[in-house]
Design a protein that fits this description.
Elements (H helix, E strand, L loop, with lengths): L2 E7 L13 H7 L2 H7 L3 E7 L18 H20 L3 E6 L5 H9 L5 E6 L20 H5 L5 H4 L13 E6 L4 H10 L2 E4 H7 L1 H15 L2 E7 L21 H14 L2 E7 L10 H13 L6
Parallel strand pairs: 1-2, 1-3, 3-8, 4-5, 4-7, 5-6, 7-8
Helix pairs in contact: 1-11, 3-4, 8-9, 9-10, 10-11
The structure holds arginine and manganese (II) ion (2 copies).
The site of arginine has 15 residues, from loops.
């Protein structure tokens, strides 16, 4: 039995398609609280973080869209996550676009000597304002956690880097920008692209990733972007990429993580109900959350 604190981070300013701020509601309607309670966990739903204070962003740069609002919300999120862990509870953050992982990772990192992360995503989210093709901050959270790019982002929750490159595993990648590929090589970040997963199978690759992180880290944050899944299984995302992980593979991944007992915090992000079909993507998120917290088929 775990004590789990659910926190909605209803942020949509890290990218340009409206609607992803409704992700937390959609995941709640898909029954996340009941699902976790039925598994015997104690669940507190803390509701949603308050929206950003500043509304206007007209003067802000196109290489960092809506910077001040993203900074403001993530600063509050980092503090909330920090408090949740300090109280002995497991923080489960519901996005919102992936920019909210800047705050969740910042809030987590101070609690561990060697915090690690599994970035379950079609993308690497390793851009900075100088490499980003879009200026969308949801493509930058992993770079910010490494201490790279705009300091207003990387200094949220403290000026130190929140993650070491060797404690990061990217899983499901298939849409990396050239500069992200360079950075991955330069820093030696472990990446399981769709190529490795197709070639050797989810079971072997996830087992390897788990063994790798178990050796290096004392706490692992799972940051699961629903676009890691193939759009067939998770159509309600803002940046879908074909050729993704299946529903079944993702279930197996969550079951293996549950069995390994390495995940100490998590976020499920990028569910956009406006782009979804009958809440399928939110339902997939809840199914995966069930498996991550110990649900078994028999
Ligand atoms: N969290 C995401 N869905 N990120 C998509 C990022 C796409 C692209 N690499 C960019 O930086 O704009
Ligand atoms: Mn993505
Ligand atoms: Mn992402």
């Amino acid at each position: 039995m775990k004590h789990i604190s659910i926190l909605g981070a209803s942020m949509d300013l890290g990218q340009q398609r409206r609607g992803v701020d409704m992700g937390p509601s959609a995941i709640r309607y898909a029954g996340v609280v009941e699902r976790l309670q039925n598994l015997g966990h104690q669940v507190t739903d803390l509701g949603d973080l308050a929206p950003p204070l500043s509304a206007s962003n007209a003067s802000e740069s196109e290489s960092l869209r809506n910077l001040s609002q993203v900074v403001e919300v993530n600063t509050r999120l980092a503090k909330e996550i920090d408090d949740i862990i300090a109280s002995g509870s497991f923080p489960l953050t519901l996005g919102g676009d992936h920019s909210i992982a800047i705050g969740s990772v910042a809030g987590v990192s101070g609690h561990y000597k060697n915090p690690g992360v599994i970035w379950y995503d079609a993308h690497a989210d390793l851009n900075t304002s100088s490499t980003s093709p879009s200026g969308n901050i949801h493509g930058m959270p992993l770079a910010a956690a490494l201490g790279l790019g705009e300091e207003q982002l990387s200094h949220i929750g403290g000026s130190e880097a929140k993650l070491r490159p060797e404690n990061i595993v990217i899983f499901g990648a298939r849409a990396l920008d050239d500069r992200e590929k360079q950075l991955i090589k330069q820093l030696g970040i472990k990446v399981y692209t769709m190529h490795e997963i197709d070639r050797h199978g989810m079971s072997a690759m996830m087992a390897e990733a788990i063994a790798y992180l178990k050796e290096k880290t004392d706490g692992v944050h799972l940051s699961l972007d629903l676009d890691a899944l193939d759009p067939q299984h998770a159509p309600g995302v803002g940046t879908p990429v074909v050729g993704g992980l299946s529903y079944r593979e993702s279930h197996l991944a969550m079951e293996m993580l549950a069995e390994a007992e390495i995940i100490t915090s998590a976020d499920f992000v990028e569910v956009n109900p406006i782009l979804d079909e009958k809440n399928r993507t939110a339902k997939a998120a809840v199914d995966l959350i069930g498996s991550l917290f110990g649900e078994k088929l028999c």
